[in-house]
Write a structure and sequence with these properties.
The structure is a single chain. This protein is 13% helix and 39% strand. By secondary structure, it is mainly beta. It has a single domain, classed as Sandwich (Jelly Rolls). The protein has an eight-stranded antiparallel beta sheet, with no helix packed on it. It has a seven-stranded antiparallel beta sheet with strand order 3-4-15-6-11-12-13, with no helix packed on it. Strand 7 and strand 8 form a beta hairpin. The longest helix is centred in the first third of the chain and has 18 residues. The protein is globular and about 50 Å long.
């Protein structure tokens, strides 16, 4: 009887450990890993968060790309569940895994926001740094991507909306620090790169129904991502200015 009780206790302890997500602390910020592996390392002289997608926890299928990317694989900032509007700023560095898991990897890296607590919904803006300075404009036009999980992943948006509606260009590249700043305000989101005065990308109308939630740092298939200097400023909704500038269709 004692052996049986001990076995049950060990089983319950094991289940408790496996049910918990790993957390990492960078300076005073704590991150919970969701379907990514990670560590805090010293990179270029400074402590950073390093993450990669965990293909054991969340497998990738090259024959079903749309169904197995743009999923909840990210490091979630702990104790922030009420981000709705405001500024998200982070420095990030994207490397490709060697060898890459499939030929189409592009260094996918970015930010998830308004994340529902159970990971069932979120908004996101991420980059494909590999094509940010491509020699063909067509490729550059895919350097930045907006998605709304779960119903508006990248492929769905390409098929359902006019070209360029939810993708854009940005002067970014692999193997260098990229400073991304996102201004979230109601249904819109505007992205600025490397302290540039004007934004590189605007989401005119976000598609998610979940308007408030958590925040996380994202990488996808084939990417080694490094992050530092995450800053979040929450603000109230700002009413858009009217008739600031009228632009006629060409």
């Amino acid at each position: 009887m004692k052996k049986l009780q001990l076995s049950i206790l060990l089983f319950l302890c094991t289940m408790s450990v496996f049910g918990q997500k790993q957390t990492l602390t960078l300076l005073k910020q704590k991150f919970e890993l969701h379907n990514v592996t990670g560590s805090i390392i010293k990179f270029e002289g400074k402590e950073v968060l390093k993450i990669e997608r965990d293909l054991k926890a969340l497998p990738f299928d090259v024959n079903n790309i749309e169904g197995t990317v743009d999923e909840p694989h990210y490091a979630r900032l702990v104790d922030l569940e009420d981000f709705e509007n405001g500024t998200i700023e982070v420095k990030m560095y994207s490397q490709l895994q060697d060898p890459p898991p499939y030929p189409g990897v592009a260094g996918f890296i970015g930010i998830y926001f308004r994340i529902k607590k159970d990971d069932s919904a979120f908004e996101a803006i991420y980059m494909r740094p590999k094509v940010g300075r491509a020699t063909k404009q067509l490729f550059r036009n895919h350097a930045v991507q907006y998605i709304s999980y779960p119903h508006a992943k990248f492929d769905t948006l390409r098929k359902s909306y006019p070209p360029g509606s939810y993708e854009g260009s940005a002067p970014v590249s692999l193997n260098e620090w990229i400073k991304m700043r996102i201004e979230v305000n109601g249904e819109t989101a505007e992205m600025f790169i490397n302290d540039m005065k004007y934004s590189s990308f605007i989401v005119d109308k976000m598609l998610g129904k979940h308007k408030i939630g958590g925040l996380g740092l994202y990488v996808d298939i084939g990417t080694i991502g490094y992050f530092k200097d995450l800053k979040i400023t929450k603000r109230k909704l700002v009413a858009p200015e009217k008739d600031v500038e009228k632009v006629d269709d060409i």
